[in-house]
Amino acid sequence: MIQLASKPLFTFVLGAVSTVIIPKVIRPLLVGTVSAALSAKEFSQTVWSEGVEEAKKIREEAIEGREKNLEREIHGLRSELKDLKK
To answer: Are 33 and 26 in contact (CB under 8 A)?
Structure first.
């Protein structure tokens, strides 16, 4: 292999092949990889923000339900207290 590297024809062919391979094969692979990574990042951010919004909605619904239960309980206790005072 070292003997081949010293020959001008071998270096010319190696240069020609690398000139063709790098722009035609490797660059599109890199661009595709970066594009896929950016798409995955955007998708994950969208899913994350949707998950956060859904969690907020669930928390708000739980708090509303708890508040209604507490209001009913307080109302029931007040009416029991009224009945006990009579």
So the answer is: no
The 3-state DSSP class for residue 1 equals coil
CA separation for the pair 10, 56 (Å, rounded): 66
Output the six-digit token pair for 57.
Answer: 């909605």
pLDDT tens track for 27-76: 888 899 999 999 999 999 999 999 999 999 988 888 877 777 788 888 88
- 8: tokens are 């001008």
Is the pTM higher than 0.85? Answer: no
3-state helix, strand, coil in the chain (%, to 5): 95, 0, 5
| Residue 77 confidence (pLDDT) | 87
Q: Retrieve residue 5's tokens.
A: 């590297």
Separation between Cα atoms, residue 80 and residue 54, nearest integer Å: 39
d(CA 60, CA 54): 10
Q: How far apart are CA 33 and CA 59, in angstroms?
A: 39
